[in-house]
Input
Amino acid sequence: MSTISTAIDIHPSYQPDGIEGQGFFATSLDKVVGLARANSLWPLPFATSCCGIEFMATMASHYDLARFGSERLSFSPRQADLLMVMGTISKKMGPVLRQVYEQMAEPKWVLSMGACASSGGIFDTYSVLQGIDRIIPVDVYIPGCPPRPEQVLDGILKIQHLAETEQRRRRDSPEYKAMLAQYGIE
Ligand code: SF4
Output
């Protein structure tokens, strides 16, 4: 006769390094903050053309970006910490993109999706910005024209890894400020 166990074993799929014992777990504040940030990224979708459609597929039920804690899109820069740039960015659009980036609070990350956002793509013309990293710093690039939703998920996972492992003091460091200064951002 089979017996039904009522005991509930909880096995977290991921937990940071720390010290564990009967009924307690201790780790450093950096790791807890990193864990929270990485699993609650709020993306701002800056979509100007076809790559944005692929992002919509990534949000939809089949790929379900909500599984990674990023289902809450923000169309306000002040409530977003992941800027996702998707599509062709014209030079006229450049200042708008830059203003959106500057309005986002730290810590923030930038994901460049697709050939157009990353390098201008096939549009090697006078009117198209040949890569958004000419005006704002980029953390992760997703190649492709368009990238598949699996690639978008892979890019998000890479951003999560950056967020999770980042030292809390990085944003105040001279190196980070020097990097922003290269873009003329204070
Ligand atoms: S990379 Fe390709 S799919 Fe994406 S916006 Fe450019 S032309 Fe469209």
Observations:
- Residues 49-51, 87-88, 114-116, 121, 145-146 surround iron/sulfur cluster (CB under 6 Å).
- The mean pLDDT is 92.
- The radius of gyration is 19 Å.
